[in-house]
Amino acid sequence: MKTLYLGNKNYNWKQFQYENISDLIDEFKSRNISIGNEVSIEDGASIGYGASIGYEVSIGYGASIGYGASIGYG
């Protein structure tokens, strides 16, 4: 079992337990979240402490990370 926290527009977080990410499709749709080709993470989004992106992940050509953002230690 895996756990994912999804927030609403007021940044109230709710815990969801799932086996397959597809189990959460209705929750993603209700929050306008898409995962796949041309994915976007909207203004004000946050990714929590200890979050990681898996092995062999790539961020495409022309991608940008906002001012003051950091990845990894330091």
Index terms:
single chain, mainly beta, two-stranded antiparallel ribbon
Describe it:
The protein is mainly beta and 74 residues long. The chain is built from one helix and two strands; from the N terminus they run E-E-H. It has one helix at residues 25-30; strands at residues 2-7, 13-18. It has a two-stranded antiparallel ribbon. The mean pLDDT is 75.
Helix content: under 10%
Identify the strand order in the major beta sheet: 1-2
| Average pLDDT over all residues | 75
Strand residue content? 15-25%
Globally, the shape reads: globular
Quick one: biggest sheet? 2 strands, antiparallel
Question: Helix/strand/pairing class, anyone?
Answer: mainly beta
Through-space gap between termini = 32 Å
Strand segment tally = 2
**Unreliable stretches covering 5 or more consecutive residues:** none
N to C succession of SSEs: EEH
Number of helices: 1
Structural Rg: 14 Å
In short:
The chain is mainly β.
Please specify the SSE layout and strand pairing:
Elements: E1 2-7, E2 13-18, H1 25-30
Antiparallel strand pairs: 1-2
